[in-house]
Amino acid sequence: MVRVSAHSQVSPAPPAELPATLGALRATGHHYRTVKQELRDNLLARMRSGEERFPGIVGYQDTVLPEVERALLAGHDMVLLGERGQGKTRLIRALGGLLDEWTPVIPGSVLNEHPMHPLTPASRARVAEAGDDLSIGWLHRSMRYGEKLATPDTSVGDLIGDVDPVRLAQGRTLGDPETIHFGLVPRTNRGVFAVNELPDLAERIQVALLNVLEERDIQVRGYQLRLPLDLLLVASANPEDYTNRGRIITPLKDRFGAEIRTHYPLDLELELELIRQEADLVATVPEHVLEVLARFARGVRESPSVDPRSGVSARFAIAAAETVAAAALRRSGLLAAGSAGDTGSTGDTGSTGDAADAGSRRAPEEAVARVGDAVSVTSTLRGKVEFESGEEGREIEVLAHLLRTATAETFRARLSGLDLSGFTALVAEGGAVETGELVSATELLRQVGTVPGLAKVLDRLGLGDAPSPAEAAAGVEFVLEGLHLTRRLGKDVTDAGRTVYGGRG
Questions:
Q1: What is the pLDDT of residues 309-336, one digit of tens each?
Q2: Phi, psi dihedrals of residue 30, rounded to the nearest 5°
């Protein structure tokens, strides 16, 4: 998999006021800076102005980002080490945002050569011949980022380059740089190049990067070719005690100026912030449900049943939130279909219930996730978790237990100190409340009626002074499940998949 912005995307059009010739560029007072000088200057400028340096990076403000900033200020290439799903690639891509928005280049140069600092003989000849009349182009910073996912079949030619036999056949000599088809690294000259999962790169291929990191030049096919490259090289890797597929060779590791360890969100609020930022939700997911999922992800990460070396990706909680939202949208769609085909009353309700059912047929139910929808994530997301060998066959059981624990913790954190006797009274003397995946909000609210203390519960859950019926139902189901998990209500699941809360037998 290859991502090379400089040659696989369409560059934005440069503003018309930018200089069009080398002479006009000199007249503006522009001077050549290396990529690392450019990153250092722009980082310092953002620090002094208070502007955000790494937009979209959550949870690293006091830990990882200071180390990254020190590496950039020192002009160091860096390698980021961390388990999967810790945002390493997101952070690397954010580095490109510190480059100048526009930078001058010699038009047609494969190496993005600066007109004041040409590298190849052909470009030097063009500059010498045209002088200040040399036409220049402009490259946007979005086009100065290259990325390669390291795979065992990656070759030196892919990264560095190889001799082009067609150009040799045209009469050029081996010593002529024009005979070379440059690889990904030199094509990202004057930019940021990233190698993801560096240990997966064969050791003999890693050797090809030694000169890039230290001497800042490249060698192709053994003959002398010295083209001093100007770039920031960044790599990502899993910790070597987990990555059995390969390792970073010692000479290469020594050439990186900084080794930076990443981590998962350190507290619950950061986990929640990450879910809110990244999850693409197709339905409303109340805050208390998101908190359950965030606690669930953290519980899975800390569980002794889960292999700690593999980690539990931040994508786990994000996918869980998206799955729960999808479950709510599915319920809304199925209830709308059922209502459209239902022309009679339920048979066990009075006129009020019939009127409510008729109303639900007229308007589809709002899609709002409930805590019961989270049950579906234990089966759909178990493939994202690597369990210890002794837990084989118990994966769903382990995840279900951790989900119940997360729900109980959220219940205590959100609703401790409230009088919930009005809810326990619902099931006194043999009463029961039935909910489930396909129980509508109207049906659930009809069963509970007016409950003392419900308004305070909804306020604690952040559902507002005037929640919709679907939001109120989400709050009611959360209370019922929390009371069950704290051993104040009983619970049964019917063959039809409905959940019945009743008194403890």
A1: 888 999 999 999 999 999 999 999 998 8
A2: -65, 140
How would you class 350 by CB atoms within 10 Å of its CB: exposed for 0-12, middle for 13-18, buried for 19 or more? Answer: exposed
pTM of the predicted protein model: 0.84
Gap between the Cα atoms of 470 and 366, Å rounded: 6
Instruction: State in words which class domain 2-261 has.
Output: alpha beta
Q: In terms of C-beta density within 10 A (0-12 exposed, 13-18 middle, 19 or more buried), how is residue 330 classed?
A: middle
> Using CA atoms, how far apart are residues 306 and 388, in angstroms rounded to an integer?
5
In contact, 369 and 284? CB cutoff 8 Å:
yes
Long-range Cβ pairs for the range 226-230 (8 Å, 24+): 227/111, 227/119, 227/120, 227/177, 227/186, 228/119, 229/185, 229/186, 229/189, 230/34, 230/35, 230/117, 230/189, 230/190
Would you list the domain boundaries of the chain? Answer: 2-261, 268-502
Element holding 379 (H helix, E strand): helix 377-380
∠ Cα 169 174 178 (to 5°) = 75
Name the H helices within 29-171. 35-49, 64-74, 88-94, 121-130, 156-159, 165-169
Distance CA(146)–CA(4), nearest Å, equals: 4
Q: Are 79 and 198 in contact (CB under 8 A)?
A: yes
> Could you tell me the sign of the dihedral formed by the alpha carbons of 112, 114, 115, 117, in that order?
negative
* Sign of the torsion angle spanned by Cα atoms 60, 238, 216, 107: negative
Residue at 296: amino acid letter:
F
Q: How far is CA 380 from the centre of its chain?
A: 19
Spatial separation of the C-alpha atoms in residues 441 and 470, rounded to whole Å: 5
pLDDT, greater one: 323 or 228: 323
Separation between Cα atoms, residue 257 and residue 401, nearest integer Å: 44
Tokens of 4: 């090379």
| In 222-313, alpha helices (H) | 250-255, 268-278, 287-302
> In residues, how long is the chain?
505
Q: Tell me the pairing of strands 498-502 and 490-493.
A: antiparallel
Residue 260 structure tokens = 């930076």
SS3 letters across 324-349: HHHHHHHHHHHHHHHHHHCCCCCCCC
Q: pLDDT tens for residues 173-201? A: 655 667 778 889 999 999 999 999 998 88
| Paired tokens of 265 | 């969100």
Close Cβ partners of 181 (under 8 Å, ≥ 6 residues apart)? 157, 161, 162, 163, 164, 167
Q: In what order do the strands lie in the sheet with 2-4?
A: 2-4, 145-149, 191-196, 231-237, 78-81, 258-261
